[in-house]
Amino acid sequence: MESPSQLREVPKTILVIALRYLGDLLLTTPLFHSIRKAYPDCQLDVLVFQGGAEILEGNPDVDTIIQTPERKSVSEEIKLLLRLFRKYDVVFVTQTGDRPFFYALLAAPIRLAVVAPNKKWAWWKRRFAQYWTEFDDLDTHTILQNLVLAKLVGIAPRTKLVPPSRPAGPSILESTLDESRYAVLHMYPQRVYKRWTIDGWVAIGNFLRENKIRIVLSGSAAKEETEYIRRIQVQLPADTITLAGKVSLAELAEITKQACLFIGLDTGVTHLASATGVSVVALFGPTNPVKWGLWPFNFIGGGEHNT
Fold first, then answer.
1. In this structure, are residues 181 and 261 in contact, taking their beta carbons and an 8 Å threshold?
2. How far is it, in rounded angstroms, from Cα 301 to Cα 307?
């Protein structure tokens, strides 16, 4: 690993490889923002899994979002490799997997990577990355871990999350919400072990309504998720609003921003809510809160910038 220094030449094209899910990808947006501030005229592209582009909608720091299936056919893999081959000056790899690093080898001559610590089989990544840092799974927040890559080449780290956005327009709630105070509840995590109890959600919902706070339920259009939400909704006041499958993440971010409260589990949507500045109550289970905890809105620390 080279010592922190400026790149020899200002890069014209940069690729960030972030093959992650929505919440993890949102936590990578401070790295995109840091790169954009350092190199405002560069072409900044991001490689993500299919579906990840939604969390980057309207992101002003990203020029092109390259989407790839998580499980690819041979023809899809070849097509991606040809698209990446020597198209960039610099590539940032935000994860320790072999495949992301292999893409980096093909994509650019200058590579910055996060590598697994104390792994003998990771020697080749240290050998072929001009700049690298070891992954810390315990004591370093994911945002700060990503920003170490920026620091390696003298880029000032900026820690502000950039939520998805879209041009202003009428909200889906305008015709249904006749009160100014409402709370958004996100009750369905991707992993079963992160779920809370249905009785708990019902109790919270009824408590909020008794205190004159309308209830808005968020979720995806997935069948299992909508059925789970419906089981809870039937036990809540009749004027409860369900947005599951009806709005994009950018629309949900705007709706959440206008709420008086957000309550959610350890999910990407909860990280999204935190990025809007709304008051958040997050229910975490076994996840390491130091590594994956919510990032405080507009927080600045350790010399980082947020603008």
1. no
2. 13
Any residues with CB less than 8 A from the CB of 120 and at least 6 apart, and which?
none
d(CA 245, CA 277): 23
Chain centre to alpha carbon of residue 28 = 6
CA distance 77 to 72: 6
Give the CA distances from residue 23 to residues 162, 169, 175, 179, in Å, rounded to whole numbers and listed in that order: 12, 25, 30, 30
SS3 per residue for 198-211: HHHHHHHHHHHHHC
What's the DSSP call for residue 295? P
pLDDT 10s digits, 135-194? 998 889 999 999 999 999 999 999 999 999 987 655 666 555 655 699 999 999 988 999
> For residue 178, what is the DSSP state?
-
Buried b vs exposed e over 207-225: b needs ≥16 C-beta within 10 Å?
Answer: ebbeeebbbbbbbeeeeeb
Helices 29-38 and 142-152 pack at an angle, to 10 degrees, of 20
Q: Quick one: average pLDDT of 61-79?
A: 95
Q: Go through the domains of the chain in sequence order and give each one's CATH number.
A: 13-152 (3.40.50.2000), 182-292 (3.40.50.2000)
Taking the complete model, does pTM exceed 0.85, yes or no? yes
